[in-house]
Write a structure and sequence with these properties.
With 441 residues, the protein is mainly β. The chain folds into 3 domains: 12-226, Immunoglobulin-like; 232-331 and 431-439, Immunoglobulin-like (Sandwich); 334-425, no CATH class. It is built from 3 helices and 29 strands. It has helices spanning 74-80, 86-89, 97-104; strands at 36-39, 61-64, 109-117, 120-129, 133-142, 151-157, 163-167, 178-187, 196-204, 216-221, 232-242, 245-254, 259-265, 271-276, 280-283, 288-290, 298-302, 305-310, 321-332, 337-341, 346-349, 355-361, 364-369, 384-389, 395-397, 401-404, 407-411, 421-425, 431-439. The strands form 7 sheets. Strands 3-4-5-8-7 form a 5-stranded antiparallel β-sheet. Strands 11-12-13-18-17 form a 5-stranded antiparallel β-sheet, with no helix packed on it. Strands 14, 15, 16, 19 and 29 form a 5-stranded antiparallel β-sheet that branches. A hairpin with a 2-residue loop joins β22 and β23. The model is unreliable at 1-77 (pLDDT under 50).
């Protein structure tokens, strides 16, 4: 989860895409009706003074797996069985074995505070927290059955803390009874978690309908002694070269809820390196811990440096660790700009013939992307930056985008432009291949 932060200014009906460092998870059709599928909604924030970093994973997909499709370890099942509200919430992290290990090791902090307004009960069930992030587990109960769609809106942490928020929206049946989800607080390096977190939010179908709605407020206690000092840091400083492109892996920090890997891309690279397809961490037993795919999966330090997040193996304490990868999505830096002629309704520049302009509507550009690469099966690309410019050089923000397999919608401001518009590619199904095999310890 862009991620981002910077998040949550987009409305659910218009979004089917994942922003920033995100991937798509396929869920069995048999449990489709039980799935709560959320999207990390977002847009780039205005830079604050003194902020060193901006989390740029702007949107990340949350998939809430059905109880029929998952199995929990006996340790987890026994631990949560006596805590109201937490047993079913464990399903929300079934996709992340690092978080499951945290539960196995009694790392969940029970909270159990709630408020009721207008037939809805919101309960903060518990939190998973370390020095890197806080995951807040919540339950929504439809007490009188009157509410059809209730999404989280205007979520914020009142405390002055260097962090960003990610949270999801859910699909609702007309007669829903209970919904569960998570809110993720991603801390910038060096940020301190207070003894209590003050959470505020609104509930409603969309931002417009919740403009004058009740403000919900929760004071969440945090047991800092439970996680203070729980991290391990490894200095790597190894450089890999793939098809002439250099990547340096500098440092890895292992926290109980995730791993952060600092990566530096050589500024002299001829290609823009977007994302690793299969970067993972393996131990001496062959157990693999991959990148985070449901939540914030990376944070940008500067143009050529970032932190990538992985599922955590903190509680396994492996004796040997290796970093492996075989392909990276990348594109020549000379091909990153796509120019759209608004008058002739055509593309003046594009990376290759696979990208085409389908149509131009009011405040929207419709693209098609032909892609038969098996590595991209079930993957939806966030093609463009949310900032674009016209021929005069004036910059604009695209607040919304939407995607489905092979289709991409890019929303633009309804105003007079000097054609053409220039859009910048931030991900594309072009690749470099090679073997990365680095020993971490």
């Amino acid at each position: 989860m862009h991620n981002n932060p910077e998040h949550n200014d987009l409305e659910w009906p218009q979004l089917e895409a994942m922003k920033g460092h995100t991937e798509q998870i396929t869920v069995p059709v048999a449990v489709k009706d039980a799935i709560q599928q959320g999207m990390w909604l977002g847009r780039k924030r205005k830079k604050r003074q003194m902020r060193m970093r901006v989390i740029y994973s702007t949107m990340c997909l949350l998939v809430l797996i059905s109880v029929a499709s998952v199995r929990f370890s006996p340790v987890v099942a026994a631990y949560v069985s006596d805590i109201p509200g937490l047993r079913s919430l464990v399903e929300l992290i079934n996709y992340d074995k690092g978080l499951q290990l945290a539960l196995d090791n009694n790392f969940m902090q029970e909270v159990g505070i709630s408020e009721e307004h207008d037939g809805i009960k919101f309960t903060v069930d518990g939190i998973l927290a370390d020095e890197s992030r806080v995951i807040i587990f919540y339950t929504l109960d439809n007490l009188d059955g009157r509410k059809e769609v209730i999404n989280l809106q205007n979520v914020k942490i009142v405390n002055d803390i260097e962090a960003s928020l990610s949270y999801g929206s859910s699909e609702f049946n007309k007669e829903w009874v209970s919904k569960q989800g998570t809110i993720e607080l991603n801390l910038q390096e060096g940020a301190e978690i207070p003894n209590t977190l003050e959470l505020e939010l609104n509930l409603g179908k969309d931002r417009v309908s919740t403009a004058n709605s009740t403000l919900w407020h929760f004071v969440i206690p945090v047991d800092k002694e439970k996680f203070e000092g729980l991290k391990e840091t490894y200095t790597i400083n190894e450089t890999a070269t793939i098809e002439g492109q250099s990547i340096t892996f500098e440092k890895m920090t292992v926290y109980p809820t995730r791993i952060g890997l600092e990566v530096v891309y050589d500024p002299s690279n001829s290609k823009k390196l977007f994302y690793f397809d299969d970067l993972r961490i393996k131990d001496e037993h062959g157990d693999t811990f991959g990148t985070i795919t449901n939540g914030v999966s990376g944070s940008k330090i500067d143009e050529n440096r970032e932190v990538l997040y992985f599922q955590s193996n903190y509680f396994k304490q492996p004796n040997r660790l290796y970093l492996r990868a075989s392909s990276i999505r990348a594109l020549d830096k000379s091909k990153l700009e796509v120019k759209v002629d608004l008058d002739r309704k055509e593309l003046l520049t594009r990376p290759d013939e696979r990208l085409t302009l389908d149509q131009i509507g009011i405040s929207i550009l419709d693209f098609r992307l032909k892609n038969d690469d098996p590595l991209d099966e079930n993957r939806t690309f966030n093609l463009f930056s949310n900032s674009y410019k016209d021929a005069s050089g004036q910059s604009f923000d695209s607040n919304q985008s939407g995607a489905s397999q092979g289709m991409f919608q890019y929303y633009i401001k309804n105003t007079d432009y000097q054609s053409p518009l220039t859009l910048t590619i931030v991900d594309y199904p072009a690749r470099i291949h090679g073997d990365i095999n680095i020993k971490i310890k």
